[in-house]
Amino acid sequence: MALSKPITEFDTVKAWAEGLRNQWGGDPLVEEPEMLDALVRFCDFVGEEPDAIVGKLFRIRKADGERVLSVKWRTHYADKVKEFRDRQTEGQRWGSDVLSFMIHNGVLIQA
Known about the structure:
Layout: H1 11-24, H2 28-31, H3 34-46, H4 50-57, E1 58-60, E2 67-69, H5 71-87, H6 91-103
Antiparallel strand pairs: 1-2
Helix pairs in contact: 3-6, 5-6
């Protein structure tokens, strides 16, 4: 699957970059471009773009209209991260990079 635009132009990737800069200083995605490569490979693996992945992870609760994490989709993507990690030669590192992307977009996933 080809992304519709460069990876760094997605809002969720911008949020990830900002979170990393705030946490670590510098520009980790420029200093370690393999982090972006890992996310591109994961997007290809699941056949979805970064913003779509994060979009699925949240839903609007009917009772009060609050935006909450979808347990169903969190479980789905946790399984996908595990599967992705287990299939790659750089699996552990790439899995960690994908989890970092998720965390900086408000989703704590343990895989």
